[in-house]
């Protein structure tokens, strides 16, 4: 319970029935005082918790008797508050009200602040309340209130993960890698830049809230079982959440952390060319997010349950005809060169221009040096992205399979970064991961314009370019989280590659590709194309 701090404010006779006054306290607070028609006193912050407009200019209604609530309406946006409790009846954020009394001809206010723990708990509850209507500005205010009370903004993100984890029917979304990358970006910013730190946490919280807004809960299976990595990987392969989740809990019960579990997640994520590379990306970025949050048991379980569910429900593109060459190629992988000329690294240009079958065959033939093969593939992916033919994104006459846009190309590079990081700890995933990178290359090769003059996108100073690109993301201006996420995700992946492996030969191409991407349109709605494809589809139905 908070201590009281009664403070004399003004003489009682200057506030008659029906009157109102604004008073400023020694501690800088601006408080609106109201005397109702029946003589009762009410006091609240004068600044509306929505956008700060003066509530002393608001409208009062009700309060005609001792048991009747008095309603205060902010006339700017029609937010309505119960002046006795501060409850917001129309609007969002609660209004702070102050105990007020009249003693010996003076009006006194209790200006004692509530205990920090109470403020923090209230801010987290209010943060949750903001999710379904996606009140982005309210989220920002609640996180700021939490910090002002002495809390850690990262607790808001951890709380969000716990509160929303079972509202994701199919598991993790881009909210996981986006949150990890936002927190990494915050670390790059000046240590005393509170606005940038808040932006980073807010974007993570907002992304989680957006991706599960208005969704019901999809409970995770109960139970616990002793951790067995092989059994976990098999449960994911069998799409058996009821078997996988108890194993995960058993691992946490035994005190295992992400570093202990990552090899199993890496194997499960790369067992298939899964979910267009998202499974590997989400797994690697979970590593970063765990490191940034240092989560408690409940948060870690929620985050890993999200990831597990996404692996179970992931699409498995290697099982469709377009990538039917993948399984035979993986079975032929020997880890030895079969190029005939002893050259371990294939020609990146050949990887950039071949079909899926051709690219995979070339990779199998040069499987002796995974790192060299990786560099060749990433160079090919950078070349392809730099020469993406925007006509495919703009077109309205293609088939479903030709619905290609920038993200088909960005994913090859972000997947490659995730593969390298996972393979650092689990080298056994190199063959599957490299061939999956080859699947990206083979598919994307049909949507490039090699005649495009890409010289204008070259980057003279990559370090300065990445610094400028990353700094600009704090004010990205994109409404859709999926768009801002890809701007951030690709920039982060390519800069990490450049920083950790400066000797790799493809960084200049990658920077140029990113430069073109950041300065080119990303068409997000295809109204005419959707209509045409739907008409053709329905016409062909039996």
Structural write-up:
The structure is a single chain. This protein is α+β, with helices and mostly antiparallel strands and 542 residues long. The chain has 21 helices and ten strands. It has helices spanning 116-129, 136-148, 153-164, 175-188, 194-211, 229-237, 241-253, 258-269, 278-293, 297-313, 326-332, 348-353, 356-365, 370-386, 390-394, 406-425, 430-444, 462-472, 481-500, 507-518, 527-539, and strands at residues 6-11, 20-24, 30-35, 41-45, 59-62, 70-73, 80-82, 88-90, 100-103, 106-110. A four-stranded antiparallel sheet has the order 5-6-7-8, with no helix packed on it. The protein has a three-stranded antiparallel sheet with strand order 1-10-9, with no helix packed on it. The protein has a three-stranded antiparallel sheet with strand order 2-3-4, with no helix packed on it. A hairpin with a 5-residue loop joins β2 (20-24) and β3 (30-35). It is elongated and about 100 Å long.
Sequence of strands across the biggest β-sheet: 5-6-7-8
- Indicate the percent of residues in helices: 40-55%
What count of structural domains? 4
Count of helix runs = 21
Estimated structural class = alpha+beta
How many β strands by DSSP? 10
Kindly report the average pLDDT value.
Answer: 94
Cα distance, first to last residue?
Answer: 71 Å
Percent in strands: 5-15%
Uncertain regions spanning at least 5 consecutive residues: none
Over all CA atoms, what is the radius of gyration? Answer: 29 Å
Largest sheet data:
4 strands, antiparallel
Shape: elongated
